[in-house]
Amino acid sequence: MLPSSKKSVSAGHHSPSVPRTPRAVRSAAGEEVQVTSSHAHSVGAKVVISRAVIDHFTAGSSPLQVLAATAPGVSFGSSDALGMDTAASTFYVRGFNQSQLGGTIDGIPMGGFGFHNWYGLNIDQIEIQDNIQSMSVSQGAGAVDMPSGQTLGGALTFQSSDPKDKAGGKISQSFGSYNGFRTFARVDSGILNETGTKFYASYARTAQNLWKGYGDQRENQANFKLVQPYLNGRGKLTAIFDYSGFTQYNFLTMTKNMWQNYGQVAMLKPDYAKAVRWAANAQAGTVPTEVQGVLSADEASNIFWDGSQVQRNYLSALVNEYKILSNLKSDTVLYGHVSNGDYGGTNNFLTSPTSGIPMVQQMGHPDVRRIGFTQSFTLKLHNNDIQSGVWYQNNSFNYPTRLYEDGVNGAHATLSGFKKGTGTTWWADSFNSNTFQFYLKDVWHIIPGMTLEGGFRSLTQTTHGGTKVDNTAALASTWGTYYAHPVSGSMTSSNAFLPHFAFDYHFLDKHEFYWDIAENMRTYDYATQTNGGTPWGGLGNASNSAQQVFDENKSKLKPERTWNYVVGYRYNSALFSGAVDFYHTDYYNRLAGITSGPVNNTYSAYLNVGRETMNGADVLGTIRPFHGLEITNSFSWNDAQYKSSAIPYNGGTVSIKGKHQVFYPKFMYKANVNYTYHRASFNFNTTYSSAMAMTYMNDVKVPS
Q1: DSSP code of residue 255
Q2: Which residue ranges are recorded for the region named Disordered (predicted)?
């Protein structure tokens, strides 16, 4: 989002969308068919989704979309049919969003998988969905061996398919409305020599027009994986390379009033004259004639010419599995991740100095360099599996923001023309973080079917950075630049003992009982100086510097922590599967960007806003009346309440005690029907979500 001179008092949100789903036609050649369960299954507090389940969905659907449709307590929303637009998607697991969950693919840490990729990468930008062999979501307390600094609640694990032993290939082609199409192709080499060398290379291209407004969205993805066994199968070395390039026009973020009283608002492109006129209104603080009495000045000022993103991602890894002894195994992952791109759009509060047009193309050009490794050892004794390991990561993040003039007769190009030296730098931020984690756990096999797991992890992260360049004052008279919150300094998150305990008991053949308890800590986020919600971002005001607020916070802030408790029961037979579990979370040191200070000098701050407690339950039942037919229903209840009674706000205090958490429904109901006959299948999914609060006071809600 672009910075605005006016702020609305609400939690950030995305507008409701009505995308159309493409119709898929698939064919395959040389494919090895694996016999596997056609439904999601569970182990303890973890739901596992097989390739067979993923194949029930439209080819190319986001794995997060598949998880949300099949796992209770999981919520996913997106602006496009396949769920690929990370700028307009949300993902929650039992109240925790995508920035509060851990994730790995093939053991590679995914980091934070939100929109901008400050310190991670979304699964949709790593792996082509067709290449995912399985995935799981831990709805409970996470896991001590998860290499993540973001985990407060659950954890996601993805496993890509290995190259096939038999040479062959696969082609998939989909077509849909709004000129939607998707092409996927994969070639498997088969086993090439006596040592077992094999690889695959695959490519996917997806494109569709926006379902409202001007523009389209295009994604190109490529995956390569090579597997080399050695020492007669004692070891296996895997080389991985993933690429994705996303070129997208963005949807406009809307308030509830906008979509209720003005309709599905889109950006103003291609009506340039209207965009210039509305920008002039924005700078004057007035409402355009055609929306007077419908939109506020704040709402109208944030409807602009255009917004877009170009993103390029490269992920490489070497994964080595080696059996040192018959009961001792070593797993090593070395990885490197590079992301860069162009993010932004029209800013209605700046002026192009040469043309005098009251708007400017403002673009951020992020550059991410993430490198690291994990090393773990697993020792199997008579009744114990002892595992220990370390994780280290260095992340370098740079974000210069440049201004590009809009002309008298037309705007600057939306998706090109951003080469270094062609724009004017407003400000630039730079961060460097080092993360280290150690863990130790023991899984004790008490009797057949009964295990008790105990372990802990130690986690520390130090981040240095902030404003590197700030030209606000120098550009104020020509471009109309305004306060940009420059700040720099270091923050450290650290906890030496984060315990995890889990119990799982399979009894009487078809029954399972389990519980799970863990403490988690989330390291401090970092983002640009104009993005609120981090210790470095959106602080202070023109008379109370961001640096002063940051320095005061250093001695007061503590990392966010949670204690998570889960207990559940599961029954599984050929005809029926049922599960019920209950969970409780105590959330400490919740951090949030708020407006603080005396009434005559309020400023943006980042503070501890107290505790939150969460109680919930999930109930799931699956019936299989005859071979090939599977009907699943699930119901989820979540009561997440804030406990703060005196949060500083706008020169005073407000109480949000007893208010429900924003953007997570209190109730969800899901129904899934799947019928498979030989190689033909039919699939139906539907989800009901209750109303969700848009504000911390719960006075504005997204309807059910």
Answers
A1: -
A2: 1-37
